[in-house]
Every structure is written in C-alpha cells, then in structure tokens.
Amino acid sequence: MNTNKFIAEIGINHNGDIKLAKEMIDMATLCGCDVVKFQKRNPDVAVPEHQKSVEKKVPWREETTTYLQYKKDIEFEKAEYDEIDSYCKKKDIKWTASVWDIDSLEFLKQYNVPFVKIASALLTNEELLLACKESGIPVYLSTGMSTVEEIDRAVELLGDSLKVLFHCNSSYPAKDEELNLAYIKVMKERYPNTIIGYSGHEEGISACMIAKVMGAEVFERHITLSRSMWGTDQAASLVFDQLHRLVRDLNRVDIWVGEPIKKVTEAEKPIRLKLRGK
Known about the structure:
Blueprint lengths: L5 E6 L6 H13 L4 E6 L2 H4 L2 H4 L2 E2 L8 E2 H7 L4 H14 L2 E6 L2 H7 L7 E3 L7 H10 L3 E4 L5 H11 L3 E7 L14 H8 L4 E6 L5 H9 L3 E5 L17 H11 L2 H5 L11 H8 L2
Parallel strand pairs: 1-2, 1-10, 2-5, 6-7, 7-8, 8-9, 9-10
Antiparallel strand pairs: 3-4
Helix pairs in contact: 1-5
C-alpha cells in the first residue's frame, strides 16, 4: 500500500471560507505534505441532540445562534468540494475527509479519495465502521479517548480495510504529560497487521519526533494560517514555519538514528589524523 505519510488536517479551521481552505492547501503543498484532510458532516445527523440547541456566538453573525446552525454555517457542500478536488489536482496534492456519519461517507464516494478517516469520537460507532469497511475505501482510524477494549473491537470490525491506526489524545491542545507516546510501541506489538501512526493535538512539533522514534509511520497534525483565527481547533494547530520544519525533520529522523554500530565516519578520519596523528 502506498501510505500517505503526512496528513495536514485542515478540518474546520477554514470556518466555511473556501478561500481560507485554498490558502491552507497551498501551505500544505509548499511544506511537502502528502494529503490535506477536511471533516465532512451532515450536521442534522452528526450533532448530538443535547448539543443542537446550545447557544453559540460566532463572528460572522451578529445574533447569537445555535450550535447546530454554527455547524451548518461552516460545512462545505458539493460546490466547495468540487472546487477543492479541482484545486488539489492542480496543486498535485491528495485530499480526503473524516466522515462523521454515513451520509458523509456516501458523499465522499463520488470522489477518488485515497482513504477515509474515522475520528476518535466515532471509534465506537459500529454502524459507521461497518459502512466504511463495506465501502472498499481504505480506512484510517484515531484512538483518542478510547479504552483498549474499544480499540480492539473497532480493529476487529474493520478487518483488512483498516490501514492506519493512530495513537491520539483528544484534548485540544493535549497536555504534555498526557501524550503517553510510549504506548505506540505497545500498539505496534498488539496490532501487527496495521500501520501505526500518530495524530497529535499538542502544542509544538517535538512530540512527533519522539513518536517517530517510538515507531509511528504516519503523522497527522492540524494546520492553520494563524492560531489567532477564530475556532476551537486553532490552538492545537501548526502554522507554516512549524509545519515546514516538522515535515522536513520527520524525513531526517531515520538518518539521525542510524545503526547501532560504533564506527569512525569518513568526515571524522581527517580530524582524527590531525588530532591524534593516526
């Protein structure tokens, strides 16, 4: 399988503005990302009933609105995704989305996406998991806020359709002491038939380097044009310079680690001769 090794999660950071989405696609392309990812919902289905009528203040409406209406305001539909599809082809970068309900999975089927993502929040939604499996599209799954038993069940249900399983903490931003990156090694042993990745929501980029050393092979980080932009995910997102350094340095980790062999390198030989005489 041709695994997409770095996923730039635009998510909902575009706030319903296609122009901002394109600017983040540009950012991901310039930084060498493999895929940009959005989130697709039918808000009437995906938003829990107890949350729909909760009051929500958004910067593009003068009056206070509801959480349901806010989700509808920022949701891209076919016209926007047609534009995203065309723009990503022009930029030579792949795109996909996290599907939050079966309607959204059906929606994505009309595009040639490399995989569908199941967010941590939906790991226990067995109906959605089975629908994703039956779609024939490769599945990537995040494991935030989940127990080992819940993860085992999801892995069992998805079977061979599951291509990447992400270690993840679902706090935004996640606390350093709760990242628990050592568990990546456990996941690699427990799920040997699945590629293990890391979906990070922490501040900064260093934790991804540790995740790589622990054995993570695929990475996902939220991106934004500015963390001062309005929205719940902005604080856990990377700006351009961070994304550029992260993608660059993840590609260097294996070179830095090298082999467990002590040797005098070619660059050291003339220095050794100068300082030791032999």
